[in-house]
Amino acid sequence: MYHGIPGRHRRLVAFYGRFLGPGDVAFDVGAHVGSRVRAWRKLGAHVVAIEPQPDCLRVLRLLFGRDAGVTIAPVAVGAAPGTARLGLSSATPTVSSMSPDWVGTVGRDAGFSRVRWDRSIEVPVTTLDALVAEHGEPVFCKIDVEGFELDVLRGLSRPVRALSFEYLPPAHDAALAALDLVDGLGDYAYNYSPVETLRFASDAWLDADGLRAVLDRHRPLGRSGDVYARLR
């Protein structure tokens, strides 16, 4: 379903073409089964696909294991290197998470009423700083790790040119904390793309206060999506 939706790959390529071009390094933190990886390779970027889930890793290796332009990193990303428990949802692997607090928060939301985190595994953890040291500074870094975004960002000590992180209304405060951390890294402008629309909510890029106002408007509607930040 992630690779076969008509027109979606073309829309992904057009959307991320704002950020990436030939030879650029891109980090996909929480690569899942690689829909972004495929689009970014179409743009000519070298992609570091970071994904700790074994089932997703099998798909990534099947699709991209022979592509010299893709590095598959079978790890999670956090505030410090080590190991951690990853809570898996067998029926809905896109919401597998390393954040028990996030699982508890969204688990009380009606939209997650049927989701069950039924098992867990121990996974190795690295940091964004370590990934930058190994693979070079990314031109764009996507962070989609189901409530662990703040921990991922705590492992980054310097700004990157552009990044995104997921926003969920039930975990509104966590997203604002991530925004504060990003804003402390550098002079960023922000925008927001609701729930896989691949369109920006604002015609103009905003400062952090402007984005907070946008997220406050979306919160009552339950519109999840992704926050985008780019250096001015």
TrEMBL record:
UniProt KW Transit peptide keyword: no
Family matches, as InterPro entries: FkbM_mtfrase, SAM-dependent_MTase
Keyword Thylakoid: no
Key words, A-Z: Methyltransferase, Transferase
Domain Methyltransferase FkbM span(s) in chain numbering: 28-166
One Gene Ontology MF term: methyltransferase activity
A GO BP annotation: methylation
Top-level taxon: Bacteria
NCBIfam families: fkbM_fam
Descriptive protein name: FkbM family methyltransferase
Protein source organism: Pseudonocardia oceani
